[in-house]
Amino acid sequence: MTNRDLTTRLSPLVAALLLAGCSMIPTYERPASPVPQAYPLAGEATGVPSAADTAWRDFVQDARLRELVRRALDNNRDLRVATLNIERVRAQYQIQRANQFPSIGLAASGNRQPDGTGGIQSTYSVGLALSTWEIDFFGRLGALKEAALAEYLASEQARNAAQTSLVSAVASSWLSLQTNEALLAITRQTLSTREDSLRLTKLRFDNGAASALDLRQAESLAATGRAALAQQQRARALDVNALNLLVGEAVPAELLQVAEAETAVLADVPAGLPSDLLTRHADIRQAEQTLIAANANIGAARAAFFPRITLTASAGTASNDLSGLFKDGSWGFTLNPVALLPIFDAGRNRAGLDSAEVSRDIAVAQYEKAIQTAFREVADALAGRATLADQLQAQRDQVVAEEDRFRLADLRYRNGVASFLDVLDAQRSLFAAQQAEAQTRLALQQNRVALYAALGGGWLE
């Protein structure tokens, strides 16, 4: 065969290759953001880095909490699964990408069959073989590759979201442990005060200076304190167990110590604008990549209506005898292009396209919901930031007032001016105010964690 003949035969194939890759994927347009253009109670954030630009190492300022987060990022099993899932989806993307290229292998075959004259005819061949390769003339394989790429990018965002969630969970659990430690101290102090009151009341009862009612009230209050102490000890143990699970190992005792009251544990973060969420929030970015994948699948479903062109080829040597395989004149090649145009498939392709379009519509709704959910989380956290500080200050003032009230009631009781009921009421009010202050302080710190996570922080190293 001359070079001219070979060129003539290959011209349609070359043209097909040049035209291959035309895409039927619909033009992607990001859906409009279904939320307001600004957060309520956000304040000014001009020129300040957003939470998404703040690495968790900068957000977490306490050294012990920072070490806990580092250990969790190294050992947490959920995060490990999310990371491994990226590798799995990456491999699937590489498989789809490889489908666009021909697969060439070394082939050897032998065939023996009757020749019609009573003898046996033998044929042997050795050479390179191109297995059935689909020439992506209408972009079906390209669309599947784009869908796989988007799914891979979505898995990366899922991992980022998992890391944000992990950092937030570790910080919140550690803060809860700190609060329960403080509540334990308050409960022990309150119980000690109540037991002192019980001893004094019993002494006064034995000397006829107090009634049986006073004694029973003092006993009841002391028993309530012991029950509260047991409850706080259980809450502390549950917090330690939660941290052990999140960190993926037993947490050293030195990392669980109570932080100084005035020590800055977490940095403040600016709110930014809702438009920042579209490009920074991991859940939203994951939802958008899922939408892009669904959009690409429509292109693959559309291409299924058009002819599918495949090519099978081989080049090598063939002979009727094994000894003649590599002799002159035994070399050659075969080329077998096939075009298959769907005519009747019982509605399979139509149903495939309908399914792909519905999947895209579902992905749009999920993307919009992800935006709305993120906006709601930020707005809730901003509402907490705007009010919790004032609430905490008011409760601090209440604690100061209740401490003075208890001191005066106890002094009046010891001097026989007031009844023991006044002392009991002052004790209960002081204990409740101290507990409320500690819980509000926890809510303020955990709200800062929630705002950081809702704004898309937590995954930068």
How would you explain this protein's 3D organization?
By secondary structure, the chain is an alpha+beta fold. It has 2 domains: 23-100 and 137-306 and 349-454, Outer membrane efflux proteins (OEP); 102-135 and 308-340, Outer membrane efflux proteins (OEP). The protein has helices at 3-19, 56-59, 63-75, 77-98, 140-206, 212-247, 274-280, 282-303, 348-414, 420-454, and strands at residues 104-114, 120-135, 308-319, 331-340. Strands 1-2-3-4 form a 4-stranded antiparallel beta sheet. Helix 5 (140-206) packs antiparallel against helix 10 (420-454). The chain is elongated, with a radius of gyration of 37 Å. The chain starts with a helix and ends in a 7-residue tail after the last helix.
Total beta strands: 4
- CATH class value of the largest domain: Mainly Alpha
Describe the global form.
Answer: elongated
The fraction of residues in strands falls at 5-15%
Could you state the order of secondary-structure elements as H and E?
HHHHEEHHHHEEHH
Helix content: 55-70%
Radius of gyration, CA atoms, in whole angstroms? 37 Å
CATH architecture of the largest domain: Up-down Bundle
Kindly report the name of the CATH homologous superfamily of the largest domain: Outer membrane efflux proteins (OEP)
Subcellular location: Cell membrane
Membrane topology: Lipid-anchor
Protein name: RND efflux system outer membrane lipoprotein NodT
Family: Belongs to the outer membrane factor (OMF) (TC 1.B.17) family.
